[in-house]
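Re: the request from the purification team.
They wanted to know what the chain is likely to look like in 3D before they choose a buffer screen. I agreed to run a prediction and write the result into the notebook, where they can find it.
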Amino acid sequence: MDNQTVADFWDDFAPDYVAAQRESRLPITTDLTAYLTQQNILPHARILDVGGGAGRFALPFAQVARQVTISDISQQMLNFAQQAAQAAGLTNIEFQQIAWSQLAARPQADVVFASMLPLAPKDLAKFSQFARQVAVLNRAVTHTDSISTELQQLLDLPPVDDPTNDAAIFQKYVQTVRQLGYQPLQQTFTYHLTEQVTQEMLVAELDDELTLDQKKVFAAWCVKKFADNREITAQQTYVFKTLLWRLELQ
């Protein structure tokens, strides 16, 4: 897709995306901020958050860093970030509406950071050039749900295209950083959550995707699972990985 199409998509999707972020129970922003602070990466630094969206990471980073620039292709996402920054009383955040591919390949901050930015491994050379000192990538690499897994196996459903289930790309990042001559440092954040699920929720999610035979199997499964319960519990696991490399160690 061209940049304008991508920008239009994120402008339209921004309210729902921000609402989902606000409802998230995952403490990844707090934990990652603490980790990067302990690594002496955030304190007193100028940070460029590429594809920073509504400021999910940039706002907590700004509590520690000297200055943070949020760069994003979507003006609507940046509007949400600006509103959140004002509400938090943060004055050390700047906002830059631009596609990451259009950023000049030169140092623009002490630290360049991106979370879930759709970078190909070949893009890491340019990504590294945005920073003077440290480059940091954060990515959700695993998301499992016990009920979804059980139903996929029971009904022989195709795997869901989930961008938070892509550990392979992270390993390619590690290999590429090493090929560039840097020594990558990795950190893993794992979270276990539970969610209460009703039969109505599952029917709404699956009914249109099932064949008649699959619906019969699904109905029998529901009778068994919900026989004595209005809700059942799904066990969920989320794994995030952070990759950082210090540019001065090349």
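For the purification team: Residues 110 and 132 are 5 Å apart (CA to CA).
Please add any questions underneath this entry.
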